[in-house]
Design a protein that fits this description.
Domain PPM-type phosphatase: 29-217
InterPro entries: PPM-type-like_dom_sf (IPR036457), PPM-type_phosphatase-like_dom (IPR001932)
Radius of gyration: 17 Å
Shape: globular
CATH class: Alpha Beta
Organism: Kribbella pittospori
Structural class: alpha+beta
Protein name: PPM-type phosphatase domain-containing protein
CATH topology: Phosphatase 2c, domain 1
């Protein structure tokens, strides 16, 4: 499997820049984690940063993925969340709804099938040998009745809201999952929403995004997105002007 990837902190972060995205790849898998930036003045009940949570999740996911565990991906993720909780349960309030959290987008390729899991707003894009494209995305955060810190904290990891990797292992079983015949997969792009906004915010097709990744590489995609971010008027979109951006392109 051929893999190209990049993960960069948002250009407006003050130095030393902290990237709350993380890429984890292996011979037959790729994972993108996108930590949810904490709101200013919000008490998370946790002494650790979002970047710490993302790194801990990656460490716990790496073991079963590298050892080729046969466990379903939701179980792999749930076990990782349990393990991370155990690390800081004695120092942090894990019942706090603002505890650090992360999106998860991952796939694992076997000899016959490719499994995927998507939790929160980091999409996974699959291109078949005939050029057909399938997008696996979890848009439940976009369906919230309002997008305020109060609404997000109230509806995070709650039925009727949205789910993310944080302190609730059951969130892993709420992820969107599926399996595709390996022969129907040629390219897979795994993206944080900071890179996916090339399509989701700025209107390019997924075909355009995959073509750009393949011909010019992940760094060019991120550069293009940040150029658009710089030129865009903030009243034309919801959320942060800039974001950490991660893009992984895998050819099976």
């Amino acid at each position: 499997m051929e893999i190209r990837s990049i993960s960069l902190p948002a250009p407006d972060r003050r130095p030393p820049a902290v990237n709350e995205d993380l890429v984890l790849t292996g011979p037959d898998f790729a994972v993108v984690l996108d930590g949810a930036t904490a709101g200013q003045g919000i008490d998370s009940g946790c002494r650790h940063t979002v970047a710490w949570l993302v790194a801990q999740l990656a460490r716990e996911l790496a073991v079963p993925l590298l050892s080729r565990s046969s466990a379903p991906l939701p179980e792999v993720l749930a076990d990782a969340i349990v393990a991370v909780c155990a690390v800081h349960a004695g120092t942090c309030d894990l019942t706090n709804p603002d505890s650090p959290s992360s999106t998860v987008a991952m796939f694992r390729a076997g000899p016959d099938h490719v499994e995927h899991l998507v939790l929160a707003d980091s999409p996974l894009v699959v291109q078949a040998p005939d050029g057909a494209i399938t997008v696996h995305s979890d848009n439940r955060v976009d369906l919230l009745p309002e997008y305020t810190f109060e609404a997000v904290r109230r509806l995070r990891n709650q039925p009727g809201g949205f789910w993310a990797a944080s302190t609730e292992p059951k969130a892993a079983y709420e992820a969107l999952t599926g399996t595709t015949d390996r022969g129907d997969v040629e390219l897979i792009a795994v993206l944080s929403d900071g890179a996916a906004r090339y399509t989701e915010r700025y209107g390019h097709s997924w075909e355009d995004l995959l073509d750009l990744l393949e011909t010019e590489g992940p760094a060019t995609l991120v550069d293009r997105v940040w150029t658009y971010d710089e030129a865009a008027h903030p009243d034309t979109f919801r959320g942060k002007r800039y974001d950490d951006a991660t893009a992984v392109l895998c050819r099976l």
